[in-house]
Amino acid sequence: QVQLVESGGGLVQAGDSLRLSCAASGRTFSTNGMGWFRQAPGKEREFVSAIKWGTGYTYYADSVKGRFTISRDNAKNTVYLQMNSLKPEDTAVYYCAAVRSLGVPPRFPNQYDYWGQGTQVTVSS
User: Fold this and answer.
1) What is the pLDDT of residue 123?
2) Who has greater pLDDT, 54 or 68?
3) Could you tell me which of 99, 79, 82, 102 has the C-alpha nearest to residue 90?
4) With bands split at pLDDT 50, 70 and 90, how would you rate the model's confidence at 100?
5) DSSP string for residues in the chain
């Protein structure tokens, strides 16, 4: 099993920045990559970004490209999501997830194996 704990959410104004963290513990060696997802009220959970533990390969949803940066610290088993130039439409609960399958971490939530509890990000206009 792998346990994931997110932190760093909060209430900010449009244009501000936040950095989310996701600390992984347990059988982290069994995972290949990590993803960040978000879910706004009344909406489906959507892909934000993903990263591979080994190569550090990253990719992003078009809606956050150029504003968000995903990174990882393998020694700390921690993944980060630096969010800049936040917009009200970024308001959501942000979740990190871990995937065991090899290859590029997927953008579909049902393909991930482990999930954190989520952290709320609220951006006021």
Assistant:
1) 98
2) 68
3) 82
4) very high
5) -EEEEEE--EEEETT--EEEEEEEEESGGG--EEEEEEE-TTS--EEEEEEETTT--EEE-TTTTTTEEEEEEGGGTEEEEEE-S--GGG-EEEEEEEE-SSSSPPS-GGG-SEE---EEEEEE-
